## 1
Amino acid sequence: MVKAWCLALCLCLSGCLWGCGGSGESAAEGNGFYFDTEISIQITGKDPEELLEGCFSLCGQMETVFSRTREDSELYQVNHRSEDHVLLSEDLAAVVKTGIEFYELTGGKLDITVGPLCEIWDFTGEKNEPPSQEEIREALEKVDGSSIRLEGRILYFERQDTILDLGALAKGYISDKLKEYLKAAGVESALINLGGNVMTVGSKPDGSPWTVGIQKPFAPRGTYEKTVSVEDRAVISAGTYERYYEWQGQQYHHILDPDTGYPARTEYAQATIISSSGLLGDALSTSCLLLGREGAEALTGQFPDTELIL
């Protein structure tokens, strides 16, 4: 049995990335573990170490909003509510709103009420064994994206057993928040990598575009399918190789089909979105992987500021 924790995207370290920028500017780089994955942040600007500390502090705050498993998180409290409606924070409401929108746009394929299925498959734990058909059937009965309604910041539930999972959206939103924080501090050059969700702030310190490598599925880390040059944009991939395990000769990946309760039978191993919004890129990448080429091209065609790579 094998569990792979691959980064969907890796920074191509071609040339010198961290020469000094303008007067008084220096560079800082840090790594951490948040959102069940390794992250790295690189900043060039004034007082970059202080800004780096602020970024990691913001990541910690976002974990207390979006974690489904941390008992002190807002999402955990929402999932263990006693009422049929909950007042959400601005952060949680923004991501839930996008989830509901993409439920409609994808005909139900992107469904943030998939939490019961995520719990029994448990790709972040040590189980490494698929659930039984009976467990899947029982979990599927609780999955219904049409049973939630958001009015302003108030989320209404038709069912008490609805459990939300925002894993397909949260990191993209958090990358937007980190970029917003850095830009407000005057940073013009930074790179944020949240376990493969890459967000660039401006260009490299020397003024050239960032070069981001798109990981080749199931190949050793650092083996690129292709590279892209971007400035001030997000490059986000969803892939069946990111989290998976093998059981009795069959591979089970973490992208679940809300119609069947099993890992989705995907046409491609990876979908990558290049966009100015991390949240949009996150939502689109998973959606496109679930929809296949025809559906993916139709969906991304509704967002002219995006590029799709399958």
## 2
Amino acid sequence: MTIQEALRPFGSLRCYRGMKQTMTAISLALENEDRLNAVIKEIYIPTALIHNTSASAVERNIRTVVQHAWQVNPGYLTRIAGYPLDGAPSVSEFLAIMVSYLQCAA
């Protein structure tokens, strides 16, 4: 399963800037799961460099994707998380959920 396929049920379009940044961030975390322990330094900053923006913009754009995912399909997000979610997860939690899900789907 690709990252894009895993994100498709959330209704986010690939052409949306935040979606591309989210896909990059998930890809970086999949390459090295330890990056999830230092999200700003190991994920936001490298993603910002790739997309020619700031780390704070990356965090904000991914947070927007997470909020959209929660609004569109909270049941799917809860199911792939594997535990109950009382609300939209944080960006780092969302990245960890997606990494775990994609690793299990591989």
